């Protein structure tokens, strides 16, 4: 048990060390059980809305609270671990106490205290359960073998990162949002990732057309999607070695990730006799069947509905905290919780995909579903229109109008027949008149969907001096959940968008373009003349013709070529883990560029004859394809067109093929220089 922030009252401090319990609280104490994103949000709001209450946050996970929502981006190497931090406050708060690595075992409702697994007790005035969910594991033979992992926590993510480094084939079971994000995050250039999609992609919420586009986009990332495949059995001695599907097919696999759904964590609530069904039953003010206990987030069941997303939890935390801190009269005037939407926004960097609003193809005669497709560019857009109003949309592939669309659906905006016709023909609703920048949008425009933060709120914070992305996030909470609105926040701040995909993208782009220019000069311009009259030419002549200097530049070139190969080693040799791959890529491109410059020194860009000509051409072709890969890599996250992204893969293969020829030609070149 660790107290990270001082501020517990004396009786609690005493209780912490002695285990003695004092139920006579002279101040209100609000205790939140569960330090997931919703528990943390609750603690923040309780501090905001109360003036004298002690707020206590108790969680059973090790370490400080983290942002579970962004775990898949962490797994995909798009975030450092420190970027997952999700503190209640950014500076010590006198009324806040936190306990981590402490599992609450029991609630003594009669004496209003909670008891942890070591028997220590903590009194409460109001208790908020934010115990979330646990991963559901299918009951199939062999599911308890090693390397069969559920993905729910930071610890799971770290285990998966290790698994990715060693496993040749990883099978992902379940094709909901978590399954898709996990599959994309685990795919590397030298492993096989198979996704078992028993009930279709995204929980069968897509039409066949939209599903085919999403499936194609995953295939472009080289994730193998097995539609309708159901896991039946896992085989192996200690760790999993093979899996069997219900179709009878078997797949050799050294890792299995279970993304087979979640189950609300209701153990505590059930044990103390609170009303539960699938989750802990709550009223419109998030009250359980005990008037002093609330439940929020994934563990709460409201109106027969469970939510598995963070935004509903945040909305519940807001209402619950206001209710906890309100006087009886104030509480009566508070707006009740009325349920939340179940919008999905995938966080796979190369696959923009979202489902918003109502996307049920119900039998309502007034419902119309309009579709725009562009196979070549991998675009599928479906609009759900009812009585002339936009009520929902499914989008696969990039769409500049996405933000306007989301706002229009949130507002239940009218849509004209002319707009719908234009949508069916060109895929756009508003054309250039509505394609506005964020700055031109109204203040009510919702920038952060997870936290419900509008453009107006962000502008107020910016006007109040929050000029950095991090400060803006701390002030408004925008961008703190899934993070997909951070580029928009950057746009408001007039700063470059945070690079969500690749570090050094700009540097790699510049180096690659410079290399291409140099190669073009080498290939298409005549070799530079050298005259004895000019001092510079004298030096060049020495470099190009003097035996000693030729050897110096030649061996430097050789050394640089060997150094560029280190990138392949970093990718393929599991023992080299130092530094993020993007840093290595950047260094690789810098060394490649340096090699080109040394080539000028060594040859004066004269192509030569016979063996030398072959060597020059292969070298230039290898650097040219490498530079093209650099350009595609640096721009990849801007391109949602699957075919365009395929170019990177194609040029990489040519680059590797050429690199195999280089050492052989170099060997004969050196031999020829010394022996013939
Ligand atoms: C990889 C991944 C990606 C996701 N991406 C998205 C996304 O893009 N968008 C989205 O909306 N949602 C996403 N989610 C879902 C989102 O993370 C959850 O909706 C959110 O975390 C729910 O928050 P919560 O606080 O209710 O529950 P949890 O996050 O589950 O937190 C509950 C906490 O309570 C603790 N606890 C439980 N019992 C006890 C006890 N007895 N004593 C003490 N502590 C206890 C648990 O250990 C846990 O730390 C994602 C989830 C995962 C795993």
UniProtKB/TrEMBL annotation:
TM annotation in the entry: 508-528, 548-569, 590-607, 613-634, 654-675
Entry keywords, A to Z: FAD, Flavoprotein, Membrane, Transmembrane, Transmembrane helix
Cross-referenced PANTHER family: NITRITE REDUCTASE [NAD(P)H], PYRIDINE NUCLEOTIDE-DISULFIDE OXIDOREDUCTASE DOMAIN-CONTAINING
FAD/NAD(P)-binding domain sequence ranges: 30-309
Tagged with keyword Disulfide bond: no
Residues in BFD-like [2Fe-2S]-binding domain copies: 446-494
The family this protein is said to belong to: Belongs to the FAD-dependent oxidoreductase family.
Stored InterPro entries: BFD-like_2Fe2S-bd_dom, BFD-like_2Fe2S-bd_dom_sf, FAD-bd_OxRdtase, FAD/NAD-bd_sf, FAD/NAD-binding_dom, FAD/NAD-linked_Rdtase_dimer_sf
Stated name of the protein: Nitrite reductase
Species per Swiss-Prot/TrEMBL record: Microbulbifer agarilyticus
GO MF term set: oxidoreductase activity
Cofactor (UniProt): FAD
Ranges where the record places region Disordered: 1-22
Record has Flavoprotein as a keyword: yes
């Amino acid at each position: 048990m660790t107290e990270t922030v001082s501020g517990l009252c004396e009786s609690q401090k005493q209780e912490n060390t002695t285990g003695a319990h004092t139920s006579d609280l002279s101040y209100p104490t609000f205790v939140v059980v569960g330090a997931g994103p919703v528990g943390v949000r609750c603690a923040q709001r309780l501090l905001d809305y109360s003036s004298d209450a002690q707020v206590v946050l108790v969680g059973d996970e090790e370490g400080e609270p983290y942002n579970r929502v962004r775990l898949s981006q962490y797994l995909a190497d798009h975030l450092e671990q420190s970027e997952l931090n999700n503190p209640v406050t950014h500076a010590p708060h006198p009324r806040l106490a936190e306990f981590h690595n402490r599992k609450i075992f029991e609630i003594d409702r009669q004496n209003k205290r909670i008891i942890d697994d070591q028997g220590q007790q903590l009194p409460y005035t109001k208790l908020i359960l934010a115990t979330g969910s646990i991963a559901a594991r299918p009951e199939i033979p062999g599911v308890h073998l090693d390397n069969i992992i559920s993905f729910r926590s930071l610890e799971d993510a770290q285990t998966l990162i290790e698994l990715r480094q060693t496993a040749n084939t990883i099978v992902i079971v379940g094709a909901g949002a978590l399954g898709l994000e996990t599959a994309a995050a685990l795919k590397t250039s030298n492993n096989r990732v198979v996704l078992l999609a028993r009930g279709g992609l995204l929980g069968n919420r897509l039409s066949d057309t939209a599903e085919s586009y999403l499936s194609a986009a995953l295939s472009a990332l080289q994730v193998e999607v097995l539609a309708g495949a159901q896991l039946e059995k896992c085989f192996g001695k200690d760790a999993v070695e093979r899996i069997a599907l219900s179709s009878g097919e078997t797949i050799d696999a050294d890792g299995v990730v279970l993304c087979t759904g979640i189950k609300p964590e209701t153990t505590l609530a059930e044990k103390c006799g609170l009303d539960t069904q699938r989750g802990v039953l709550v009223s419109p003010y998030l009250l359980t069947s005990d008037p002093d206990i609330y439940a929020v987030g994934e563990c709460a069941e409201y109106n027969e509905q469970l939510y598995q997303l963070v935004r509903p939890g945040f909305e519940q935390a807001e209402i619950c905290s206001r209710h906890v801190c309100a006087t009886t009269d104030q509480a009566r005037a508070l707006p009740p919780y009325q349920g939340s939407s179940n919008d999905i926004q995938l966080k796979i960097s190369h696959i923009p995909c979202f489902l918003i609003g109502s996307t049920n193809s119900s039998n309502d005669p007034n419902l119309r579903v309009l579709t725009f497709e562009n196979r070549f560019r991998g675009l599928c857009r479906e609009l759900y229109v009812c009585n002339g109003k936009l009520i929902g949309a499914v989008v696969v592939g990039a769409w500049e109008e996405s933000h306007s669309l989301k706002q229009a659906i949130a507002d239940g905006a009218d849509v004209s027949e002319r707009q719908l016709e234009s949508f069916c023909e060109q895929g756009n609703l508003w054309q250039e008149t509505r394609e506005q920048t964020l700055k031109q949008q109204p203040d009510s425009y919702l920038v952060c969907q997870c936290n419900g933060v509008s453009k107006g709120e962000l502008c107020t914070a910016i006007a109040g001096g929050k000029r950095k992305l991090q400060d803006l996030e701390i002030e408004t909470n925008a961008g703190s959940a899934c993070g997909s609105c951070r580029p928009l926040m950057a746009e408001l701040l007039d700063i470059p968008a945070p690079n969500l995909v690749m570090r050094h993208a700009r540097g790699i782009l510049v180096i690659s373009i410079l290399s291409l220019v140099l190669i073009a000069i080498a290939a298409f311009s005549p070799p530079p003349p050298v005259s004895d009259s000019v001092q510079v030419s004298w030096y060049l002549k020495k470099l190009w013709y003097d035996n000693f200097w030729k050897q110096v530049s030649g061996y430097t070139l050789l050394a640089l070529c060997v150094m560029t190969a280190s990138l392949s080693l970093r990718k393929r040799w599991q023992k080299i883990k130092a530094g993020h791959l993007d840093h290595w890529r950047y260094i690789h491109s810098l060394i490649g560029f340096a090699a080109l410059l040394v080539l000028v020194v060594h040859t004066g860009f004269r192509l030569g004859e016979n063996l030398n000509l072959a060597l020059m051409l292969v070298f230039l072709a290898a650097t040219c394809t490498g530079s093209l890969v650099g350009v595609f890599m640096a721009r990849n996250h801007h391109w949602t067109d699957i075919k365009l992204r395929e170019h990177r893969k194609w040029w990489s293969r040519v680059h590797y093929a050429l690199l195999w020829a280089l050492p052989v030609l170099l060997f004969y070149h050196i031999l020829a220089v010394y022996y013939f």
